[in-house]
C-alpha cells in the first residue's frame, strides 16, 4: 500500500469542517491569543517557549503534504523557482526601500519592519495559497530554498538598508537555529515518515493524523505567537500604529506587482496565484526569535514583527477572495 492510500484514514466530517472554516478559526486563534496575552501578561515567556515546538510541528505537517518525489520534481521547475526568487529578492527589496526611505522611524522599529518584509514566508503561505486555488505544492518545494537564500541574503540586505552597525546588533545564531529546527529537522522527519508509510500502516496513520491537524496546529501557532507578544504590543501602541500603514501598503503593492509578473511570464492560474502569495507573505514567525534575541535597546522590535503577522493575516482574508478573481482558472491550466 502506498502512502497516498492512507491519507484519508483519519478523514472525518470534523476535519472537513475545519478546512472549510480555516480563516475564521485562525482569526479566533488570534483573538484568543490577544485575550490571554492581555489577561495574563506574566505568561509571555511561557508562550514564547512554545513557539518553536508548535511551529515546528506545523511545518512537519506541512512538509508531509508533498512526497519526496514531487519535491525533487518541483525543484526542476527552474522558471517558476527563478520567478519566486526574483520577486522575493529583487522586487521586494525595492518595494521595501520605497516604503521606508522617506518614513522617519526609530532604528528598533525600522529593524522590525526590515526583518519581516525582507524575508519571504515558508510556512502558512502554503495554506493560504491552497485556499485560493494556487499551486501550493510548488511553494512547498520552494520553501527550503527560500529559507536558505534569505538566511544568506538578510545580513547583506540589512547592511544595505541600515549600515554596518548591524553586525554588532544581529546575531545570526538564532537564524541558523531556526533554520535547523524549523526547516531541516521537520523536513527530514517528514521524509522519514514518508518512507515508513511506504512499508507500514503506522506511517500512513501518522501522515493522515498530521494532515488532519493542520488547521489546529496553525491556530495554535497563531495563538502562542500573539499571546507571547501582545503584552509588548499593548505597551507600544504608538509605535505599532506607525507601521500598520506600511504593512498594509506592502500587501497592496505586492499584489499588483505580482500580477504584473504573472502576466509577463504567462503563468497558469496555479503558478500565478502561488507567485503572488509568495511575494506578499512574510516570514515573521521564523524571524521572531531573531528579534527576541536583540539587545534591550531593541525591545520594540519583536512587537513590530508580530504586528506584521496580524496585518498579514487580515490581508490574507482579502487575498484568498481577490487573487482568484485577478487570475482566473482556464481549462488549459489543467
Describe the structure.
This protein has helices spanning 13-20, 22-39, 44-63, 68-75, 78-100, 107-117, 125-131, 136-162, 173-197, 201-212, 214-234, 237-265, 269-280, 284-292, 301-326. It is mainly alpha-helical. The longest helix is centred in the last third of the chain and has 29 residues, at 237-265. The protein starts with 12 loop residues before the first helix and ends in an 8-residue tail after the last helix.
Strand content: under 5%
Secondary-structure class: mainly alpha
State the low-pLDDT regions, or none.
1-9
Radius of gyration: 19 Å
Average predicted local confidence, pLDDT:
85
The largest sheet, given as strand count, sense and whether it forms a barrel, is: none
Distance between the termini: 28 Å
Membrane topology: Multi-pass membrane protein
InterPro entries: Arsenical-R_Acr3, BilAc:Na_symport/Acr3, Na+/solute_symporter_sf
Main location: membrane
GO molecular function: antimonite transmembrane transporter activity; antiporter activity; arsenite transmembrane transporter activity
Amino acid at each position: 500500500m502506498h502512502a497516498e492510500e492512507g491519507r484519508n484514514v483519519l478523514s472525518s466530517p470534523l476535519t472537513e469542517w475545519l478546512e472549510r472554516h480555516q480563516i475564521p478559526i485562525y482569526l479566533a486563534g488570534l483573538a484568543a491569543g490577544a485575550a490571554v496575552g492581555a489577561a495574563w501578561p506574566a505568561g509571555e515567556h511561557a508562550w514564547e517557549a512554545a513557539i518553536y515546538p508548535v511551529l515546528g510541528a506545523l511545518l512537519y505537517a506541512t512538509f508531509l503534504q508533498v512526497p519526496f518525489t514531487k519535491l525533487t520534481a518541483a525543484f526542476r521547475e527552474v522558471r517558476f523557482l527563478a520567478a519566486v526568487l526574483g520577486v522575493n529578492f529583487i522586487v521586494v527589496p525595492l518595494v521595501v526601500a520605497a516604503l521606508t526611505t522617506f518614513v522617519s522611524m526609530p532604528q528598533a522599529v525600522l529593524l522590525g519592519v526590515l526583518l519581516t518584509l525582507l524575508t519571504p514566508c515558508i510556512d502558512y503561505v502554503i495554506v493560504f495559497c491552497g485556499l485560493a486555488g494556487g499551486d501550493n505544492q510548488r511553494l512547498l518545494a520552494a520553501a527550503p530554498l527560500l529559507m536558505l537564500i534569505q538566511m544568506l541574503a538578510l545580513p547583506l540586505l540589512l547592511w544595505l538598508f541600515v549600515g554596518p552597525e548591524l553586525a554588532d546588533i544581529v546575531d545570526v545564531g538564532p537564524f541558523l537555529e531556526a533554520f535547523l529546527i524549523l526547516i531541516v529537522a521537520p523536513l527530514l522527519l517528514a521524509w522519514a515518515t514518508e518512507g515508513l508509510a511506504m512499508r507500514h500502516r503506522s506511517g500512513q496513520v501518522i501522515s493522515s493524523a498530521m494532515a488532519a491537524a493542520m488547521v489546529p496546529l496553525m491556530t495554535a501557532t497563531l495563538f502562542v505567537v500573539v499571546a507571547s507578544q501582545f503584552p509588548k504590543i499593548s505597551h507600544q501602541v504608538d509605535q505599532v500604529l506607525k507601521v500598520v500603514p506600511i504593512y498594509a501598503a506592502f500587501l497592496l503593492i505586492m499584489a499588483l506587482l505580482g500580477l504584473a509578473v504573472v502576466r509577463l511570464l504567462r503563468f497558469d492560474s496555479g503558478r500565478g496565484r502561488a507567485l503572488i502569495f509568495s511575494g506578499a507573505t512574510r516570514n515573521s514567525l521564523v524571524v521572531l526569535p531573531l528579534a527576541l534575541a536583540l539587545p534591550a535597546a531593541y525591545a520594540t522590535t519583536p512587537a513590530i514583527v508580530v504586528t506584521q503577522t496580524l496585518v498579514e493575516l487580515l490581508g490574507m482574508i482579502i487575498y484568498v477572495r481577490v487573487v482568484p478573481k485577478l487570475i482566473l482558472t482556464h481549462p488549459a491550466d489543467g
